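Title: Comparing notes on inverse folding

I've been comparing how different people in this forum approach sequence design from structure. To keep things fair, I'm posting one structure and asking everyone to reply with a full sequence. Here's the target:
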């Protein structure tokens, strides 16, 4: 019995040992040849996005059917604003996946410096009740025309992007770039020439301020040379950019760089004070940011946080100062430079002595109404058909054709040349208030002139122009100082708040002025013994 039981135990141990070996062999095979799933793993992202959309739609449905609509009558715009935000995001997402997303790209710059803040953020300000401009009552049938305005903005921006991404502007830019000089001075040679151009711009700005051409004032009599005087004041901004670009290219901080930075900061503050508007500090900030990026620098997390904080300060401080200055001065009537300076000092004193909480509240409320462009464009959308018969008496009829067909003739040679795109006459007709310049945007101007069909056609054409400029001066090529400076001036010349009819004429005039500024700095650099070198990345 003992022998039999022993033999069975031995046999059992042998079978267990064999089983262990088979398991180990199976595990080895599994590691060497992993088992492949017959059904592919399903990604979680689409499901998460779908769930988020369902929750968002449910939330919106609950909000729109609640008592909140009584307190906030424009809540029905939320779905439209979210759809508009999605349309604005698409070009930036495309450029990101192409590896071409940069702030100085003209389409990206237009999106994030104007369209998104003006219509998405501004629309949210309107929806939340922060923006309550007096002309809201001018929007006829608001429940129809406000969403319709958003649809027109979607169409306009979408066709602008389509024009940019089309091959027409790209090919035209390549053709132009072939004929541009491929040798230029190094950025280090632009210090003294840049200071000279800056001082020239400051001198011209003083003269323009005395004549009532710039600042928060309007000249009593419009002279034929006023436009030329204004253009020469742009040397201030061109010289400022050139010096910041030189500083960022050097990448080292020395005594010379420190002195130039102090000069630039001082000049920027003085310019913002005398401009009398709410965007003076913001413009100075944008100049520095574009010079930083175009010089080849990049933002890390720390620099982004610092830049965001400075941007917030510039926005709020600019709104507080600009609003207070207008209240102190009272109107746009032309005054002497001494009285203008007294208004500035009174404004600074009033802001400094006011309660900090009240000043911040004024700044935020002013920012909310200033950034809300949706409501002002909706006034045009809802009433342009009824006001067409009156536009001729204001000189606003066919302003796009008039401006584009006559801009190349200087007013000095044609003193009776019509001013078709006149913001104060437009404000008087549409808003019954001629002492302000309300936003119309190229989309609203195209609608006035050619109806809904004009919006996609006109914006598509301008998208082609944007890509042509970008490809000719910046894209897919080494950066030359002259090309970068010219591109910067053209980029900031575009006002998406103004008339479509003024886009090309302003680009042409500022382009010629910028070329003159480039010629001046090149002559000074040559006289100092510097030589042009071939382009380098």
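Reply #1:
Here's my take.
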């Amino acid at each position: 019995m003992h022998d039999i039981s022993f033999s069975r135990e031995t046999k059992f141990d042998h079978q267990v040992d064999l089983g262990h070996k088979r398991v180990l062999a199976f595990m080895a095979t599994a590691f060497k040849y992993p088992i492949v799933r017959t059904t592919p793993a399903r990604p979680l992202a689409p499901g998460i996005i779908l769930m988020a959309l369902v929750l968002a739609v449910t939330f919106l449905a609950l909000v729109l059917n609640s008592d909140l609509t009584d307190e906030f009558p424009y809540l029905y715009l939320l779905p439209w604003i979210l759809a508009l935000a999605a349309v604005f995001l698409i070009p930036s997402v495309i450029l990101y996946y192409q590896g071409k997303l940069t702030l100085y790209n003209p389409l990206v710059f237009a999106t994030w410096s104007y369209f998104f803040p003006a219509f998405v953020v501004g629309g949210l300000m309107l929806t939340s009740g922060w923006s309550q401009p007096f002309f809201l009552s001018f929007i006829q049938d608001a429940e129809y025309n406000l969403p319709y305005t958003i649809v027109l903005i979607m169409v306009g921006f979408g066709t602008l992007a389509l024009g940019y991404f089309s091959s027409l502007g790209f090919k035209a830019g390549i053709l132009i770039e072939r004929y541009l000089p491929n040798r230029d001075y190094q950025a280090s040679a632009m210090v003294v020439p840049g200071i000279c151009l800056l001082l020239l711009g400051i001198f011209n700005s003083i003269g323009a301020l005395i004549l009532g051409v710039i600042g928060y004032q309007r000249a009593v009599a419009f002279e034929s040379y006023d436009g030329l005087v204004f253009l020469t004041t742009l040397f201030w901004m061109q010289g400022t950019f050139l010096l910041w670009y030189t500083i960022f290219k050097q990448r080292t901080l020395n005594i010379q760089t420190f002195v130039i930075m102090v000069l630039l900061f001082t000049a920027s503050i003085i310019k913002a004070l005398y401009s009398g508007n709410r965007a003076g500090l913001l413009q100075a900030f944008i100049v520095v940011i574009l010079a930083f990026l175009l010089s080849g620098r990049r933002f890390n997390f720390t620099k982004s946080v610092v830049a965001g904080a400075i941007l917030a300060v510039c926005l709020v401080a600019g709104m507080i100062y600009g609003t207070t200055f207008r209240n102190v001065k009272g109107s746009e009537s032309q005054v002497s430079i001494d009285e203008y300076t007294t208004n500035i000092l009174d404004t600074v004193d009033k802001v400094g002595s006011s309660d900090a909480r009240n000043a911040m509240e004024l700044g935020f409320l002013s920012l909310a109404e200033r950034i809300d462009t949706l409501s002002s464009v909706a006034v045009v959308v809802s009433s342009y058909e009824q006001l067409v018969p009156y536009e001729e008496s204001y000189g606003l009829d066919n302003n796009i054709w008039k401006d584009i067909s006559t801009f190349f003739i200087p007013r000095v040679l044609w003193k009776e040349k019509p001013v078709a795109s006149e913001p104060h006459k437009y404000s008087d007709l549409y808003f019954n208030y001629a002492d302000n310049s309300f936003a119309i945007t190229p989309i609203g101007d195209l609608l006035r002139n050619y109806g809904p069909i004009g919006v996609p056609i006109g914006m598509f054409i301008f998208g082609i122009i944007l890509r042509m400029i970008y490809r000719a001066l910046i894209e897919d090529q080494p950066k030359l100082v002259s090309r970068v400076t010219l591109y910067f001036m053209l980029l900031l010349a575009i006002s998406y708040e103004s008339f479509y009819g003024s886009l090309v004429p302003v680009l042409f005039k500022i382009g010629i002025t910028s070329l003159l500024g480039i010629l001046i700095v090149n002559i000074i650099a040559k006289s100092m013994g510097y030589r042009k070198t071939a382009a380098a990345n």
